[in-house]
């Protein structure tokens, strides 16, 4: 694609060489480049379209990479990648061996910090700013937080600490009132209240600039500046301080986040101010592409699409044979349980559509709670409801549940509360890469007392486990992957059967124990061979009757799981065999001690030798038949 400006911008140095009046045209080209590329090579579209002007302004004003820009969350940063030497490789974004899906320092010196999970920018940026001060450095540090990340508890912890430490951190609050779904909760309304006070904000800004030009205030004496700021607020508004000024963090805004020349002017004005400060900008997610502006949730990550018509390409795999996605199975079953039992409630941290809890919400909106990007709160909130007799089905993606580990232990398991953790996106998730693969949940949940842990192999099993969980008195975790769910329509998994492992194939030479959806691949690999295959279904408690039989009848045993092998099913089986004195040789197949890169699920399972071909090679030392 030929562009007048963009084809000649290989670094921010090239951008800075342009006159400021050319920047709107640069923004238009960057936006078009993102749209054209993502129409063929899918990624996070709407979020990055909303930050084009901000990105151009930041790299125009600041001296990156010496100055640090931390993105939160990272799906806002496509324009950042394009302007920092990765334009020609952007076509490989999220692809196997291509550009990483989110900013990562291992990829570029312009990426100041890993940005796969939300709400970490303020804490990390404060750490970098304090390190700069202690080392007598001159670099500027900017945290860009948006797309719902400000609803996370870590963001408020960082904000609180920022107000107490001597620092010059700039926090840019990108306010588009969206995460993947619209933001829920009081902070969204709070920001709306701030943005509606436009007369006050505009007057305060202009008076502040006038006072500075007249040398009525000294920017380097922060206490006097704050007194001026607060006095001005008292004169112009009867409202109380906002949360930022209440913490003695200077507040500027709200500003139009799509006016690049105004953003450059504002950033230049406040760049060298001392003390922590917040610049509040208003943006539209999906800006500049009408379909994305009109349906921001759908176009968060739309897949392939026709730029001219806005028509999205359908995933043939998901339509074949009317198969259902795992999250759809969950959502439909949750509604059925809610219709049957008024104790059932749903809780999710900002993944209402992604986990299909919106199916229940449409029928019982008062019993579904989207708590924002706040995984720890979601778990403890669920515990509180369980304590008083409700049965919360708390759905959190596997990699995000890591952020709620203490809550699971202290608030749920310790009290043996009836919370059902429904762990979506377990295993390999594909192009979102290392920050999003759900590889640790089996291992990190297994040591927790009172916790029951299941992994369905089929859609039928997931429904049966959710049924079982309704009557199980205690904490229970059910983990399942992304993608299309296998289903055995001829089989009914009732509450009794689901409580035990299942023999899928008889054989004498070897016993293979798998858990979860990867058992479908194992079944393909062992078909026609003289090996036994058990779907264990539950990691905790293990079906010891099956293990006793396997331990006493087989010398060759293999375990297969789509999680880390250190601490997972393989470790549990080894421990049991050792405790019981069985002398089997056990081979553990799964994820070794590594973080897995990004790519399609097919590519990654092949890389890990967990596809049919790799399993045949590992299990039988031969290629697949």
Describe the protein.
It is a single chain. This protein has 625 residues and is α/β, with parallel strands linked by helices. It has 26 helices and 17 strands. The strands form 3 sheets. Strands 7-6-8-9-11-10-15 form a 7-stranded mixed sheet, with helices on both faces. The protein has a 5-stranded parallel sheet with strand order 1-2-3-5-4. It is globular. It starts with 11 loop residues before the first helix and ends in a 5-residue tail after the last helix.
Produce the secondary structure layout.
Layout: H1 12-16, H2 23-40, H3 45-49, H4 52-61, E1 68-72, H5 78-86, H6 121-134, E2 141-146, H7 153-164, E3 170-175, H8 186-195, H9 198-213, H10 222-236, H11 243-246, E4 250-256, H12 260-270, E5 277-282, H13 290-294, H14 316-319, H15 326-340, E6 344-348, H16 358-363, E7 368-370, H17 375-387, E8 391-397, H18 398-401, H19 405-413, E9 420-424, H20 441-445, E10 452-454, H21 459-471, E11 476-479, E12 502-505, E13 510-514, H22 519-526, E14 531-535, E15 538-540, H23 544-553, E16 556-564, H24 569-580, E17 585-591, H25 601-607, H26 612-620
Parallel strand pairs: 1-2, 2-3, 3-5, 4-5, 6-7, 6-8, 8-9, 9-11, 10-11, 13-14, 13-16, 16-17
Antiparallel strand pairs: 10-15, 12-14
Helix pairs in contact: 2-4, 4-5, 4-12, 6-7, 9-10, 15-21, 17-19, 22-26, 23-24
